[in-house]
Amino acid sequence: MTNRPDYLDVDDPGYESGQDHATFLEQVEAWIEADPEPRDQAELRTLLAEADSPDPRDHELRARARAELRDRFAGTLQFGTAGLRGEMAAGPNRMNRAVVIRAAAGLASFLRDALPGQTPRVVIGYDARHHSHTFALDSAAVFTAAGLEASILPSPLPTPVLAYAVRHLGTDAGVMVTASHNPPADNGYKVYLGGRVVTDSGQGAQIVPPYDAEIAAAIDRAPVAARVPRATDGWTVLGRDLALGYVESVGRLSDGAARDLRIVATPLHGVGGEVLDRVLKDAGFTDVISVAEQFEANPLFPTVAFPNPEEPGAIDLALAYAQDAKADLVIANDPDADRCALAVYDPRVGTYQGAETARSNGWRMLHGDEVGSLLGEEIGRRATPGGAGGTDGAPPFFASSIVSSRLLRKIAESHGLGYSATLTGFKWISRVDGLVYGYEEALGYCVDPQDVRDKDGISAALLLAQLANRLKAEGRTLVDALDDLARAHGLHVTDQLSARFTDLDEIPAAMSRLRAAPPRTLAGSGVSEVLDLSEGLDGLPPTDGVRLLSADGTRVIVRPSGTEPKVKCYLEVIVPVAPDASYDDLTAARAFARTRLDQVRADVAAALGI
């Protein structure tokens, strides 16, 4: 007769019929023995003790511990195109030293196979989250013991600095330890390939298939963490010259104009504060006010619920600074500074209703598509049609993800440039041949693909500050520039509906509901096309998602997030605008578009059951 855990009773939804009590305990004990971190070993032993507490009064404690153990040992944290990302805790389904060590061993094995008879070179960066430095050092120790040449950035630095280092140093791979804008409990492990491993237009970009599957397979073949060799020294800690080289590369984007702009800037407790401050000052922007409460890196992110500029309330403190200081512009980076958010004063959105705040006075954050379009127009007017787009010698191309606004295609065409739509994620955007500019609506912008083949919130911030500065000298604003784009190409207004799930099984269920019964109308306009992106679209690889188009041009794309437990819905309406439309005409058009977006949001929410 088999012994199974009493906490895996048949009426328990977590019961796995193929696993008895002894087998489960052996799995947990084996992991504990192989875990190199004493605190994680103790954490799991505590959970085991709580799960088997004999005290009948500990029913709730036992239930929590048993559920936690089931989840931590339900599988292995999966490595994919986004690398690793998850909550920091002990166990194979969490981010911890044991998981990172095996990931590093797998990556080292992949690189050795890719470069037989050669010495692979890897550079490692890390942010200021809990354990990031430890994970970076563990990676360097594993790479060095495996015969790789490893170097590590000298301090917590933005992700774009690591992406720059991969191309600048010509390394075969790069690792960035960061969870970007995820909650404080999370951490992650991004992988870039370049050097001699990837030599085409994706050199120095994040991984895509089949590299992700090959690295994941190598990780699966790696021994348990305790048996992975780790060196005690032998890697190189890079000096400040690398970071200064990045700052100088961004500085080459400066237009050298006189400055008359007051900027409020916040890194949201991340690692971008000092770097952005240096870049702006070097470019002549000396009237920069930092949000003091958020300037120093802090892994607890104490002033924000989620350290993501897109999340409600995240930049409210910066907006309050801007209101008090009568600033011209607010710049917010996410914690690893690869994203850039912008807020402006827009008299159209002021209101006397409710309490007086910076928002009620007219300060608002620009949508990622608005910023992406502004940058597209700015870069497009300087690009040379028919010229070379980059080191690959291809014609200049703009690129954006399929969930981003369709406006960028029109901007590119108006400047005689090529355009490419890609799957979601900069790992795809950065691989476009001839790329001179790429963006995705989630606040990611690549404005200098020669140096950084990834989204870069620092270089984007500089170009946006320069654009705002030039417009101010002309007596105009970024809102005026957006109106110009609407007059030239029609008013494109976008928004997003997101649903966060605690039960990950609900995500495919929501997608199944949408596929089975898509809405018949969007804001009253009949749905003319329903495309399942898992079957491929316009020659792109299959991806999990659904695209809806209505007769009036309204578009909705629904897809699960690749980095968070969310389903995301990307909404876009287009309103025709006359080339000579007045400010009042555009104000009315924006109000009409907003109403339509709200109706579309309700239709999509109903179809998804959220």
TrEMBL record:
Pfam families: PGM_PMM_I, PGM_PMM_II, PGM_PMM_III, PGM_PMM_IV
Cofactor(s) needed for function: Mg(2+)
InterPro entries to which the protein is assigned, alphabetical: A-D-PHexomutase_a/b/a-I (IPR005844), A-D-PHexomutase_a/b/a-I/II/III (IPR016055), A-D-PHexomutase_a/b/a-II (IPR005845), A-D-PHexomutase_a/b/a-III (IPR005846), A-D-PHexomutase_C (IPR005843), A-D-PHexomutase_C_sf (IPR036900), A-D-PHexomutase_CS (IPR016066), Alpha-D-phosphohexomutase_SF (IPR005841)
Keywords: Isomerase, Magnesium, Metal-binding, Phosphoprotein
Highest taxon listed in the record's lineage: Bacteria
Limits of the Alpha-D-phosphohexomutase C-terminal domain: 503-572
GO biological process: carbohydrate metabolic process; purine ribonucleoside salvage
Xref: Gene3D superfamilies: Alpha-D-Glucose-1,6-Bisphosphate, subunit A, domain 3 (3.40.120.10), Alpha-D-phosphohexomutase, C-terminal domain (3.30.310.50)
Any one GO molecular function term: magnesium ion binding
Residue ranges constituting the Alpha-D-phosphohexomutase alpha/beta/alpha domain according to the UniProt record: 78-217, 246-343, 368-483
Family: Belongs to the phosphohexose mutase family.
Protein name per UniProt: Phospho-sugar mutase
Organism: Oerskovia douganii
